[in-house]
Amino acid sequence: MKTEKHGYKFTNKHNTRGGIIATILGVAAIILLCTGIYISYTDKGEAGIQVGMLGALSFLVSGIGLINGLLSFREKERFYVFSFVGCGICGIIWLVTTMIIAYGVII
Q1: Helix (H, G, I), strand (E, B), or coil: what is residue 8?
Q2: For labelling alongside 99, which of 5, 10, 20, 52 has CA 20 to 30 A away?
Q3: Considering Cα of 86, then 87, then 88, then 90, what sign does the dihedral take?
């Protein structure tokens, strides 16, 4: 007879605190970047300094989240799901904002 797995977890492990913080910061960076892009789109590219500040803040928040997520891998006997997710989100947002800043400097 086939038995079903119920998904019980018999361990005392928890998620890493730094990974959870990195994921939250990654979501915040996405919100900041999308808000800046939306404002720039509605103003037809003439948004001004507020969009630049949103982009810089997104760059800073994602950088802090990436560092926090990478440092969370040092915690022993933990689940690293949020660490991987937070590092992925923050790394992608950091690269995107870096490319946007580099494009703005070149032009």
Answers
A1: coil
A2: 20
A3: positive
- Confidence label for 1 from pLDDT (cuts 50, 70 and 90): very low
Q: What are phi and psi of 48, to 5 degrees?
A: 100, -155
- What is the C-alpha to C-alpha distance for residues 18 and 86, in angstroms, rounded to an integer? 9
Tell if the pTM clears 0.85, that is, is over it: no
Under DSSP, the state recorded for 12 is -
Q: Are 93 and 30 a contacting pair, CB within 8 Å?
A: yes
CA 97/CA 54 separation, integer angstroms: 10
Q: Rounded distance, CA 66 to CA 80, Å?
A: 14
